[in-house]
Amino acid sequence: MQQSFPNIQGTLARATAAHQAGKLSEAEFLYKLVLQTDKKQFDALHMLAVIEGQRGNFAAALSRINEALRIRPKSADALINLGRIQGELGDDANAIATYEKALALNSQSPLAHNNLSILLRRQRRLEEALDHCDAAIAIARDYADVWNNRGNVLFDLNRLSDALKDYDRALAIQPKLAESHLGRGNVLKLLTRPDEALDAYTRALAIKPDNAEAWLGRGNILVEFKKFDDALVAYDKALALRPDLVEAEVGRGGIFAVLRQYDRAFAAYDKAFRIQPELRELEGSRLHAKQCLCDWAFLEDDISYLLEAIRSGQPASSPFPLLAVPSSPADQLQCAKSYVANLPSFPPLWSGKTYAHDRIRVAYLSSDFREHPMAYLTAGLFEEHDKSRFDLTAISYPPEQSESEVGRRAKGAFERFIDVGQQTDEQVAEMIRELEIDIAVDLNGITQNSRPNILSRRPAPVQVNYLGYASTMGADYIDYILADATVVPSDQFAFFSEKVIWLPGSFMVNDARRRIAERTPTRSDCALPEHGFVFCCFNHSYKIAPEIFKIWMRLLKATEHSVLWLSGHTPTIVANLRREAETSGVSSDRIIFAPRVASNADHLARHRQADLFLDTLPYNAHATASDALSAGLPVLTCLGASFAGRVAASLNRAVGLPELVTNSLEEYEALALKLAQDPARLAALKAKLARHRETYPLFDTKRFTRNIEAAYTTIWQRHQRGDPPQSFAVESLPANPLPTNHMPVGNG
Predict the structure, then answer these.
(1) Do domains 246-341 and 348-512+700-748 have the same CATH topology?
(2) Structure confidence by residue, pLDDT tens digits, 240-276
(3) Which residues, 6 or more positions from 721, have their beta carbon under 8 angstroms from its beta carbon?
């Protein structure tokens, strides 16, 4: 042994030099040469374990490192490497214990603190992870990796501004640290600074082109810019690098859903779900795509799975898909709260100051001041607002720019119409605060193209959820929801995070000036048979539940020569519905699909060729029911359990047709059949609707505007007095009240 010792040391030195130069095969040969002389040589065993780890052979690395530790069990360095290997093998519990042993031997190891922090973060023990980052920084302030890791922990804690500072500190030390550019991109995305986020992802990829997470981030930002083809390329590159990166598959699904390619959306979501079944928050999107396709295979199981996850407190879905399944108001509140809790939180911009203005400043926020049902419903409201009492601002963030008549009407009704499509949420919120808006009204809620991170910054003293989202937002920064006694009865107030304002009649505004084409297309024009009863439903496909469809099929079988007229859909949806019809014993050619028409006025006019609109449940027709009633087509509905399932009942009652509101699906089916078989009764209903359309509140835009202004006045007065939000009902105003001059101003 005495003779071989110098040879061992020399060989070890040569091995170490080769190892440091990245010549792993040469180093491995030399370490093994040492072990031929001394099979218990600690350094050789230790470094062979490191080489196996570098190659990704973690099982072999674990065997080697354990051999080394049997020789020198109190080697802090070897314990640190053991912790790394255990972590790579997914044995986090033992890895954490190993790092703790290493730190007990050497508490001044920044590497051990940093690596332990990474594992604690993975276990969601974030405050402990942060403590170990701080311990590492106290030892080595120029350690770029630990600043990067600290940024990651702060990101998970939703301390976004602090995370950004730490990523910048890491890059000041090591400018080519791709992971910190990636981290910056992730933070900047959540701060809605998309241009800067895209630049950060681009920098990360310039340094490390095989960074799958950076390709994912790039895809996410390109989606925000509506560059869907480029986004798909980015997602595909991410998946080529990491086939298990489910977020990229989810991103692909989101693009296909926006493009209404629901079969491809479902395939992407389903693939992601198979890769990672525990990703419960994916289930809502997957189920919604499936419902859009009218694919009802195992639907009850999917719904049960979703509701089970929500009721157990898991973030199983964006809240919107829940509205189209048999969920309770309590389920919807739980889902919304879980969803909002996972969004970034921000300090309030409004400082508590009470504004003194001559007019109440109201801002409407929406992505839909364009060719969209929201604009058709609200254009008259915006025009009828009393500009002597209300100062109106539109905050518009459209998904695309396109001119339309209704968009021009909406734009012309505001004193300020501000397109903020290119501004960040932070910039928009700051602008609302600088404009000293008294009441901010969110017309999107939690729907496609919504931007909840604007109002989550609390830029206005009073913030309201209205029209776009038929449920609670579950957010403490939204003070009120505008509803009515039908859609949100008092026994459901507990399931709304907002205070509930009951508007008289219906909560839904309608535009009395909405144009319906004078020419009625012929039945032939509409591909309808010349004779026979026409049941109609122009709702979106995801609202067509199998139970409702079965009722419709029974109605067709019981009503000779009748047809079902549905909105035009994709070939897959058409094929699925035709197959379901045949399964029910109904010829599929008795379902007629209406194609899209360029003019909304023409679309309304073709309603005249239908005999009865059949509503859906659990998600009613909303703007679609309003379309039918405005065109003179009676809407038969069934009162549902939650807001989304009670809207058509609200509309019918407000137009004086409560007899078309049923309380069970059995009653709904029976009444539909009676109306189909009794032409005189149906004609009387149509005549009644025609009369009431001119005299009842539903289509009286001026009266509705006065009512909503009374609501705004009350919540503004409460705020001026320093009173907290409170539920209340607005008293019904007459059709032609005397002019009002009691409007409080200033601090009054």
Answers:
(1) no
(2) 999 999 999 999 999 999 999 999 999 999 999 999 8
(3) none
